[in-house]
Design brief:
It is a single chain. By secondary structure, the protein is mainly beta. The protein has one domain (2-396): Porin (Beta Barrel), CATH 2.40.160.60. Helix content is 5%, strand content 56%. The protein has 2 helices and 25 strands. Strand 12 (173-191) and strand 13 (194-214) form a beta hairpin. It is elongated. 39% of the residues are buried.
């Protein structure tokens, strides 16, 4: 009975918040719905990207790493997180058959032009079956309903970069990049017999710097990158299947003890956080590379109850030959809810995640095959235990 009450309460919290005559539905309720977009055979790398399918979510200045016309596509499987939230709510991927990302780049002397598509945020909260209850039947009437809330945000990107070779030293390359995104949000909710849908477009942007140089005192190539991503913001009207009206009952001062109904509007609000990324790749040998990346996700700018989240990733990459490589790495993510006396400290422990990553990259003829795996079952909180498997294929044209 307590579980039913708690689940019903969180359904209502997620479904709407009433402000005067306006009802606002927060579609970004779940912090770890933020997709790990940049998984590849290099690990989790955003600042010095070598995976063409990931360009929409990577430092646009790193387009300099692509010297030929390339097109790539990826698919990302994510196992469900059960439990994935309070009182055994399940979190899983919405629209699981959609590709994770698509990218293409065209090189023209020192200029690189790219287009890309990538899933930014993807979450489906499944509350399971909840029995209908009444005063006469507090433990259920024999009927039930299954609340679901899903949000998908996809970014469509235009990117460009321009490189300045030998700017400071011989054979070094400084590259500047910019990207402009048109983001699409789709929202679906099911609560009892009411289904709601909403969708719309917004814009966002990103810019970055990438610097590649040879170390002077010791042999080895360095790549350093900085990348800032501006989040997007949506406010769209919710459409329901039964033309439901949210109402506010107000007292009519002219007629004591009588009330009238004021129709309210219902909006879906979704804001994705800004992100600041920086990192480097060091290659002490031609066939050995080490990657370290850090990023800050500014959740507190869009949700006052969330702290900004620091994430860290590292990987070691081994080139078996000129056409094959494999990697091993770690990803750490630690979103935190601010203690306001309502949430239990266990919630923050449950949201911590440490992923172990493996990657394999093979080139054959004009085709490039990229496989990567990230698993968080061994070292993560109860709500972050899952497996991510990503496969990509690209072709040189």
């Amino acid at each position: 009975m307590n579980k039913i009450i708690i689940i019903s309460f969180f359904c209502l919290v997620i479904f709407f918040n009433v402000w005067g005559q306006h009802v606002a539905i927060d579609a970004i309720y779940f912090p770890h719905g933020l997709v790990l977009e940049n998984l590849s055979s290099f690990g989790f790398v955003q600042n010095s990207n070598y995976a063409i399918e990931n360009i929409s979510s990577s430092n646009p200045a790193s387009l300099i790493n692509f010297d030929s016309l390339l097109v790539g596509v990826s698919y990302q499987y994510v196992s469900e997180q059960n439990p994935g939230w309070i009182v055994d709510i399940i979190n899983k991927r919405a629209y699981p058959f959609l590709p994770q990302s698509i990218g293409a780049v065209y090189p023209l002397d020192n200029l690189r032009i790219g287009i890309g598509i990538s899933q930014r945020y993807n979450s489906l909260l499944d509350y399971g079956e909840i029995p209908f209850t009444t005063v006469e039947n507090p433990y259920g009437t024999g009927q039930s309903y299954s609340p679901k809330f899903e949000t998908l945000i996809i970014g469509f990107s235009n990117l460009c970069s321009y490189s300045l070779p030998s700017l400071f030293y011989k054979n070094d390359v400084l590259s500047l990049g910019f990207q402009f995104n048109i983001d699409r949000m789709d929202y679906y909710s099911k609560l009892a017999r009411t289904e709601g849908t909403s969708g719309g477009f917004s814009s966002s942007y990103g810019f970055g710097i990438h610097y590649k140089f040879e170390k002077r005192l010791h042999p080895g190539l360095f790549e350093i990158g900085f990348f800032y991503e501006k989040g997007s913001s949506f406010k769209e009207e919710l459409q329901t299947n039964n033309n439901i009206n949210v109402v506010r009952v107000s007292e009519d001062s002219l007629r004591p003890n009588n009330y009238y109904v004021v129709q309210s509007s219902m909006d879906v609000i979704a804001k994705t956080p800004d992100k600041l990324n920086y990192g480097f790749i060091y290659s002490p040998e031609s066939m050995l590379h080490f990657s370290i990346n850090s990023r800050t996700v500014y959740w507190n700018k869009i949700r006052s109850d969330l702290q900004n989240c620091s994430e860290f990733s590292c990987s070691a990459i081994f080139d078996y030959s000129k056409t094959a490589r494999f990697s091993f790495g770690l990803i750490s993510s630690n979103p935190q809810i601010i203690d306001n006396g309502f949430y239990s400290p266990e919630i923050n422990e449950n949201m911590k995640a440490i992923y172990v990553t493996l990657g394999l990259h093979i080139e054959k003829y004009r085709f490039i095959y990229d496989l990567s795996l990230a698993d968080s079952h061994n070292y993560s909180g109860a709500w972050r235990k899952h497996t991510i498997l990503k496969g990509a294929i690209a072709v040189k044209l």
